[in-house]
Amino acid sequence: MRHSSWLYGIIAVAALLLCGGCATTDYVTGAETYNFYTLEDDVRIGKEVYSQTLEQMRTKGIPVNEDRERVRELQTIVDRIVAVSDIPQFPYEVALIHTNVANAMAAPGGKIMVFEGLWDREKGLVSDRDELAAVLAHEIAHVNARHSTEAMTRDMGPSILFAIGAAYAQSQEKEEFARILAGTFMVYQGVVVTHYSRRAEYEADRVGMMYMARAGYDPEAAVRIWRRVVEEQGRNHSPLSFISTHPSAPQRVQQLEALLPRARELYLSGTPEP
Ligand SMILES: [Zn+2]
């Protein structure tokens, strides 16, 4: 038992030393940020998530990429937004999953999954090309801001500390301590992680709006989507899933409305920034 706590201690020190070198520059903001992973790691992790998800869908009998025309439309929009993004060198790819979920998500490194329910007349989110571009730009913004691997980096420290604490408690047979520790970890997950993911959603909204405008899509569409969500949430209490994220829809509308004049300028100038 003693051995395992020593082992965890060594791992923790090694990780902290390693993470001294994980200060890096955020590709979107140019600010200093912490990411333990390289761009190649993002690509590798993303590929794994993507192929596993698509494989799971197929085993469940859910078709992937069967509507060729829609897949082409998605690819065209993704290509145009990627061209004005901050990490265009990622191997971007988009898959259409034929299931009635109004959702889209991005794995690190540029692998995007779009669910057909997005176009659903009742529960869906998008009714035209610009609105589709708004959803895709939001996902591409997450990829460029590297939100997934940044979150994974942030989780390393607390996970390791928790593991050391748990090993210690186990070795001392201190059940009470282990229980308190588990509680603390849950609070960390609930408060800290939620805080960061809320911040990530706002950032993806902001960056996505500028990307779509620079790529030639009307940024007003992003505001339209979120206004619709606000109305929808007013009518029934089940939030749509693309949206089942932490910032409230009215707050997201507010931020996007404030950014709209700048985004419209980019859109109307019609010359994608380098
Ligand atoms: Zn998001």
UniProtKB/TrEMBL annotation:
Q: Return the similarity comment.
A: Belongs to the peptidase M48 family.
One GO MF term: metal ion binding
Q: Say yes or no: keyword Metal-binding present.
A: yes
Domain of life per record: Bacteria
Designated name of the protein: TPR repeat-containing protein YfgC
GO cellular component terms attached to this protein's record: membrane
Lineage of source species: Bacteria, Pseudomonadati, Kiritimatiellota, Kiritimatiellia, Kiritimatiellales
Query: Per its Swiss-Prot or TrEMBL entry, what cofactor is needed?
Result: Zn(2+)
Q: Could you tell me the keywords of this UniProt record?
A: Hydrolase, Metal-binding, Metalloprotease, Protease, Zinc
Cofactor, how bound (note): Binds 1 zinc ion per subunit.
Query: Peptidase M48 domain: which residues?
Result: 71-258
| GO process annotations (BP) | proteolysis involved in protein catabolic process
> Cross-referenced PANTHER family, in alphabetical order?
METALLOENDOPEPTIDASE OMA1, METALLOENDOPEPTIDASE OMA1, MITOCHONDRIAL
